[in-house]
């Protein structure tokens, strides 16, 4: 994606200039009144559509991808949604903030908005702060003191779209006076009355294209730098390499969703849908500012995936089928969109794929193993010797989903082959090869606590105390300095970073010292397998490690007991295939998205219109995200390589 070659004719350039001039006039008309103050609870994110004709380009091909033909994006309907998202509205913001000032209005607003977003200041406080700053500035000055004035200076309109649904029937509510919500469906239990905030579902959709454009523009120096991608990255997996043929200027999305509490008193939760860009090298791919927020669901209820993701999926489908164009440094480039995989923890995966619960029968998305009931532990287990490893396919999923949807009547779900219905998510993902296991939740938050629990049941308390003492005496470098605040007997309370440190770094020497030889050697196998899958160096290494993993899963009930053969252990059998498809497990973790959830939680203030507030701040961050990221440089010297070259040179000169 680096160094595109733009090929725009003079006629098209003039057409663009005329179009931008018309857009500026429209923008000035929309923001003619710049003194209106919007409260935190009253955010209007609606915007009108305008027609524009995308221009086809012939950009250069990314060096790490084969060349392909340009896709036609003339029918991409979402290019016509927001007229101010191209960052090409050259408004007169180069004027000084006041007479004699060396700072322009645009630069001042950018820096202030960066401060507001970094410190999570609410909108009313921002307006008051701007008014105070304006008083201290020389008169006259051009500092805006309202949100409409700020957006006018930034040259874009806020684009998120908010919809309010009835929590009972999930139909759209009507807006009443003073921001109240009404619903008049005679069949609904909440009909003909003002609805409480806890009875409303807030559904927010953000502009995907504008966010992708801002991210690519700020990271353009990182694109196509093959030296920045580790050989275990997603882009070197089988799926990415096979799907790259026939694509030009490709942007590939990894999509994730999960839940987090938002308002404790009303028990409202937030379900964000995120996406990251495969074409950005790690770790830049996982930075919060480089994560795309697709949509938000805020309610006490779990989302219906077909309602929650309907508009997002339609927009993504249009981007995938028709392509679009983006602007970097004033140049227009055609891009095509693809999806890499959907990752989430097991409960969210079950919800959004509309499958049976992960602790039930036939819960595996990869194979046809049914599992069996363990009467001793009252749990469904998946014995290794009775697994049915016949792979599931996308077509069988669709057939079972359609049959289940037909047989489900009056709200009672019927499962066919562990499939409860047709998920809209499968319109852009292939099941099961693009529905992956989250490495973080599966390994570090599911299996490792279960494994340590089995240890504690088979050793004396003195052994547990000695392991705790060893963990507390660890002296680690600053980048791994993670304290173990809980005993191993409470490993279920460990954070993912504790389990990760234990498996990848410190666990092997500690268990070798304190655990019986059988338990220690068995964990040794597991630690080795996870380390290799974390960053495998070759396909042969993956194949060998797959055999070791199968041996580990096969012997686990013999070393511990049958209760360990729950689904979280069974899923480990399929990790090798996932690594072949999508690269090392280090790059199929939801940890970066989990951090983003905590980030956006802080953007909500008060108790009303929380989703609109979050989307507004994320959209504002997109507007001011213009500073290019510098490409990293190698600062260290490879001493070994230097010595070898020196010896080779010396021998050629006959020095020794």
TrEMBL record:
Organism: Rotaria magnacalcarata
Protein name as catalogued: Transposase domain-containing protein
Region (Disordered): 1-57
PANTHER family according to UniProt: AGAP000105-PA, PROTEIN, PUTATIVE-RELATED
Domain of life: Eukaryota
Biased composition (Basic and acidic residues): 15-27
Listed Acidic residues bias regions: 35-44
Pfam families: Transposase_21
